[in-house]
């Protein structure tokens, strides 16, 4: 069965390490903030100027002026810092982010990512995605494996305008966790109950399937 958005965020949270500075993109990536282990010191950063994002607020902790880059209300953890966006982008461009988690429209087997524009549709802007893919060496993309119409989002070559070229090495979809090496998607893990045949059928780009592909573990319903 395909992973829920919350389960995808849980799997990404398994990649966090003590002391990491992490930027969470808009969409599924923002949910990762809810699954940071209590005993792990991780500082979540937003390009609009908050370093030290906490879990999403309850009614009792909601502050309408405390938002992330996606304009969602958030909390600030102890030790958080508020800065202007120029300083936040300087942190990103200077290579001071240990892990970046982004959504995407397409990713291809060469590590290219398209995440900001569909021709013919109005776009408000790229946001910080171009800076993030240029300034980070460690990026995880989270997205559905296929579109609502069933078209694969893991392609031999991106068809949409690129956000960045050759910068993506890991992709987590609702069906699988994959790495990208030498022009090929490598299947590392699969969602519980999802067959390899389904993953193969929904991956348009070249895909290598090892003899053993474990199921993603450690997820809550």
Automatic annotation (TrEMBL):
The keyword Transferase applies. The keyword Chaperone does not apply. PROSITE patterns: COA_TRANSF_2 (PS01274). SMART domains: CoA_trans. Gene3D superfamilies: Glutaconate Coenzyme A-transferase. Pfam families: CoA_trans. It comes from the Bacteria. GO terms for molecular function: CoA-transferase activity. Keywords: Transferase. Belongs to the 3-oxoacid CoA-transferase subunit B family. PANTHER family: KETOACID-COENZYME A TRANSFERASE, SUCCINYL-COA:3-KETOACID COENZYME A TRANSFERASE SUBUNIT B-RELATED. This is Succinyl-CoA--3-ketoacid-CoA transferase. It comes from Terasakiispira papahanaumokuakeensis.
